[in-house]
Amino acid sequence: MQQVGQSPLLDPFLCLHKHKNGMVSPNYGVVLYYYPRLPAVIPIHFNALGRPDAWGSKSTMMSLLYVSIGLYGVFTLLGFFVQYVNYSVKVTVENAVRLYPLARLMTESLKLEILLMLLYTTWGMIQVAIKKANGLSGWLLPVFLVVLGISLIYFISATLKAQ
Predict the structure, then answer these.
(1) By CB neighbour count within 10 A (0-12 exposed, 13-18 middle, 19+ buried), where does 99 fall?
(2) Residue-wise pLDDT tens digits, 116-127
(3) Which residue has the higher pLDDT, 136 or 5?
(4) Which SS3 state, helix, strand or coil, does residue 83 take?
(5) How far is the C-alpha of 152 from the C-alpha of 134, rounded, in Å?
(6) Which of 1, 47, 89, 123 has the most beta carbons within 10 angstroms of its beta carbon?
(7) For residue 46, what are the β-bridge partners?
(8) Residue 17, exposed/middle/buried by CB under 10 A (0-12, 13-18, 19+)?
């Protein structure tokens, strides 16, 4: 809840909400801009080193866009129904005012992280398809998993402290 006199810029939920909303639009724009320029066959899977190891139709690019839009929708809905999230602590009337905003912030954070990863993956697939790159960074998956892990550890520990 925003208190009187508190700047909306200092509210982490509002900041994340505004910034992650901008993550679907670039993905959509990148796909729509490059789609007509893509060859009929594009890389659709990358090995652990980031090199393409499977190729398929360029329509797969649209599937990746639909996945990002779908995940955006699921995480947005989840943010509205945080009272149904499985908490690691017992939720009471007293601690719900601390736990629910924390859960909402967690869903927004995870949404942003996942949308950024999908945006990077989409951009990388396009760059490989148009021969401007040889593959994705081999660090993509490890960095993504570490970032998600740090977020989850932070929010689980914050939940335990907020009980």
Answers:
(1) buried
(2) 999 999 999 999
(3) 136
(4) helix
(5) 32
(6) 123
(7) 52
(8) middle
